[in-house]
Design a protein that fits this description.
Helix content: over 70%
Number of helices: 17
Low-confidence stretches: none
Distance between the termini: 22 Å
Radius of gyration: 21 Å
Number of domains: 1
Number of strands: 2
Length: 449
Amino acid sequence: MEHKIIDSSLKSILSITVPMVLSVLSTNLMFLIDRAMLAGYSMDSMNAAAMAGNFTVIFTMMLIGISNSAEIFVGQYNGSKQYDKLAAPVWQMIYMSLAASVILIPIAYFSDYLHTLPDYYLKEGVAYQKTLMYFGALPSLRVAFCAFFIGRGKTKIITFSVIAGIIVNAILDYLLIYGIKNVFPGTGCQGAAIATVIAEFVQIVILAAIFFNNKNRTICQTLKNNKFDYKLFCSCIKIGLPLSFGNFISMLAWYVVQTAISYSSKDIATIYNIGMNVYIFFLFVGEGINKAAAAICSNMIGRRDLQSIEKTRQVFIAISLFFGYIIAIPLIGFPEWILSILDMLPDNISMLYSDIKTVFYWVTVTIVLETLLFSTWGILIAGGDTRYAVIVYQITLWGLVALPTAILYYMGALNSVPVVYLFMVAWLVMTQFFLYKRYKSLKWYNKLV
């Protein structure tokens, strides 16, 4: 089996970054497809799914934060040519993901009694929330399998699984949300959630099939090296727990923002959710860069190549700025094409278009800033330095976005969505400042294996 050497060339970086971007796009696009089709079903359904989705993501992102730690160990094992150990961290995260269902299933069962949604979103939102929570371990399980391929730079299979998941999700969304006349009725939000769950399962089956193929079983011992390793499990948890806790606190912050806006008025909630749908769609590049930077730089740390890490960082900066230019063309230059899509929805929201255009501008700015931030963060993650980044990220997110938004709501002054995006810009600039200082200090440059 060929073992790929990952360097700082643009070709090598893109060969890993593009599939990572597509991998993140899979999750983001599935939620976006859900919400776009639900908007065609009814705007209340879209808003209900957005709010219920924020609640479920709190838990799934916690698990994903821990599972992501497997990438670091696989990358450093690969960089130091310990190929027979590549599967071990993956198995630890498989066990963790499966065990998490013990917590997630009871939460799903009692969703009717949690009162996490306004009354006008309750019926559809709870159905969406409950379905996703029953199968909330699937995204983490998918990430665990992905780690085996990401850490080695073998990412074509991830691209294939992502495309398959998106296609399955889109087809099932249409069938289950709207139904088929004289065959079965549409199920709205619940149908969207079922489509997402099935699409996740399809991706896992594809990844697992390659993980257990003959070559990987023979050389990487993917089947033989399946024992529970307490020491390695704890090492993964130690690295992943700050990311997991950070994801939890982060999703909680966004849940606070979403709740404050949803309770302010339906119009403000609609403007915010349209902006966030666009934000979530384009954010896949930043999150993909974060994962790619962690995978690439963990290999470089494994072979002690600091110079290549700095070159890699510069390449990611160039990619981030180029991406910002690309998304500015439709969002700022020609926003009418998105508005024309909104014109086709059953609810008339044309009176909100002026505010929506303003939100598109600030969405572009925040996406570029967050993409730059994620590239720096990915490098810190590669050395297992997760605690500092998480602490800074959460303090600034809560202090500059969540709490100011909540305060405006309680004061009765939350009557403009763009002000929330101004809070977000301040948060991203401040966070990038602290993470760059950490990068220059080299306190993150740790060899773990």
